[in-house]
Amino acid sequence: xxxxxxxxxxxxxxxxxxxxxxxxxxxxxxxxxxxxxxxxxxxxxxxxxxxxxxxxxxxxxxxxxxxxxxxxxxxxxxxxxxxxxxxxxxxxxxxxxxxxxxxxxxxxxxxxxxxxxxxxxxxxxxxxxxxxxxxxxxxxxxxxxxxxxxxxxxxxxxxxxxxxxxxxxxxxxxxxxxxxxxxxxxxxxxxxxxxxxxxxxxxxxxxxxxxxxxxxxxxxxxxxxxxxxxxxxxxxxxxxxxxxxxx
Length: 247
Description:
Layout: H1 4-41, H2 50-75, H3 78-124, H4 132-145, H5 179-188, H6 197-246
Helix pairs in contact: 1-2, 1-6, 2-3, 3-4, 3-6
């Protein structure tokens, strides 16, 4: 293969496939983060994880196809480059399908999540030992997101007026006092968080889902460029082969 032009295309395609591998890892990472968000905030229910699981599979497929594209470009094989371009087209179609499905299902997922949050909050207020998992779940959310209750700390006393907010609603106190005194001071002085957790949870999940969709859209543009380069290189190799035959 002679001439800087085709060599430049060849090496550029190899570089592009290196970027594909990186973006494949990014898609897997963002999908895992979104999946973790859904699992962490869904009240121990497994719902709405299907699109993220498909995206993780697509990310793995992208890495494999990128490696295949590097091999095809390096070997200067038109057949391998055509197969590579076809695989990229399939990936684009899959990504668009998952993106549309994710956007369409998001309101339903968030609505289901709101229901699970409210149901688990009621169980969180229970003193039964079998409901301790819900108390741990809400303690984790309230600590991590710096919020209290579903819509606010008043949710704790809605059905039981004497019930006070959980200690996890209180900001961190680095004093040397024991936890009982810290909790008593927090409740008596109303230092606990005043913002509800529902909006914060939905906002975090929405942001994670949006990151997945944006990554998918940006990657589609990069894949289109890869298809163009692969077809260009394959056609150049075939044209040069014909030129040598007629020479």
